[in-house]
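pasting for ref. prot 1 ->
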Amino acid sequence: MCMRIKGGSTDSTEADVKIEDISVRAIIGIHPYERKKKQKLKITIEYTYDMTLAAESDNISAAVDYDGLAKTVAGIAEKSSYHLVETLVSEILKHVLSVKGIIRASVTVQKPAALKFARAVSVTALFP
């Protein structure tokens, strides 16, 4: 996790949180061989939330639980069987944005085995 405190008003402090390279296996792809066997994917989530209450209370109930978020996102990916990485990215982003307190987010899904001549292909979606 990376956290950067943004100077805003004295009443609130925004934090940028990054969960990098959540490793999952999922059915994803357009080719018949991709539909038969799960492939390795890496997911990175970045989000911004107001951490003021969490920092003051030192209580997880006032924060965005990044452990729970990562596990939920991994579950979404592992249960999916989309043809396009773009669809998976969109579904994960919808979930991340539904988490109470998150005001901005981006999701990147990396598919390492997509091309033989490249390390990986990745798709990123962000809001706003």
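and prot 2 ->
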Amino acid sequence: MPLLRWFQRSPVRPSFAFAVAVAAAVGIASGAQAASLGGRSAAAAGGTDESIVRTARSTIHGTVTPTMREFLGIRYAGPPVGAARWAPPQPIPVDPPTVNATAFGPHCPQAASAFGEGSVTEDCLFLNVFTPRCPQNGRGRHTSDERGLPVMVWIHGGAFTSGESDDYDPDKFVAHGVIVVTLNYRLGLLGFFAHPALDATTGPSIDYGLMDQQAALAWVNRNIGAFGGDRKRITIFGESAGGLSVFSQLSSPGASHLFGGALIESGSYQLALPTRAESEAAGTATATALGCSSQTAACLRALPVATLLANEAPMTVPTVDGFVLPKSPDVAFATGAFNHVPIVDGTNHDEYRLFVAGDFDLGPNGPLTAAEYQPLIAASLGNAAAALVVAQYPLSNYPSPDVAFATVVTDFIFSCPALGADGQLAKYVPLYAYEFADENAPEPYLPPVSFPYAAAHASEIQFIWDSFTRVNPPLSSAELKLSESMVDYWSQFGTDGQPNARNTPYWPRFGLSASTAAGGIQTLVPPQPLPGFAAAFAADHKCAFWAALASASPAKTKATLASIRAAARGLRRH
């Protein structure tokens, strides 16, 4: 029995990374089989039905729309239930000969929120494939490009506790000749829970959600040729937790050779991830809160999903477990120990305004007050550092305490860490940096508040995606032009590893020095992107101040997005 076939049919195992290594060693066998067919769909093989794709082991029935082919709710791993809860993703026991791919699969468990629909269904490891229509030859690709079409795999955001694959209408990308894949992955306690008792039953892995993403990418590598795609041109991209997922996959040896490009939107908010010891200590306390004072895997696996969701933190992050992530991304990037592929990385100019709106204005006590401003900063950074921060960001410089605090955290948590990572990564790989800075961007998730959202966290999503599940606010004519440029950039990067498309403003590579004009940062503003420089970006976001503060008070500046939001909740409780 071939080695890959043995792995695919074997019982529960502790290491999905081993599967990836095996797949790479044998050239990802079933993907090679599909490639040997020239990436042909059923139509290309002599039929005429564009809704049918034949992989090496299954016939997949999808749907044909006027603009694309949709193959929805395709299982990429076995159900993570029972003994497979808190285990690496398992191979599908038997590949079904026929797959009905006409409806999205269930969302992974999460509480209902503005950013995701509620679900308690653990059997959720499904993906969706969207391809262009090519009626002239029935293939899912352009006749002029025998390589097959580029593939872009989207990893959704949602703080690693919410979100789903079916919220993103890929029509804009598909119109550019790109195959798009969206996927679900385990979230919250089910996706990122560390506990010593679980090590004994399923091995040393902790980052189950990241392993799910790798399992989905391995499925894409094996099968995308049958959809007309080129598995040598797979780009992963994501926003927020999806962006941090991309940074994590760049840092994971298990993801090596699974993708050839990486695009990150607002993912720089926690590049220094917790250690196994830190996460397992928190997991032990969580087990007690869940009613499992025995600290056994059996008790934990018997808990109802609703109980887990009721005790879940609003945000979580992956762990440096020594297995999926041997190093934290910040360390991997500083040392060059990451998967070397072309990268696009960017942030939004006013990231934290979204969180200030949710934590203050839309809460029961209303906007942040002037009296609360410095104590809130001190709750995260300490009194001495808070005094320095307030001197740099005096309330008199801002229209409200809300906007002042949002500016502080945007610079500290998002903008300056992104700039630092860009400077490290650009020493090893081609990197293109951007800042989304539309000060009038519509807010697609939350209602109006006392201040303008401007270019808040996640506000760029509506410029590249339509939505299946909500109506996006209308963009102005100037914003529609910016949207066209952004989709052109993103699609071109997925096509050949650089973003410069015909009829778009030139986007230079980020320079080796992030402190000089050589470090170009494209400024995404309507109606047309403008060139920018790292030095100006650093000055705007006061990155020299934050670097000096970190050198003087390294422990105090280890506050995270989650800890800052927790401090806000604590302040209002008192």
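The longest strand covers residues 229-239.
The two ends are 65 Å apart (CA to CA).
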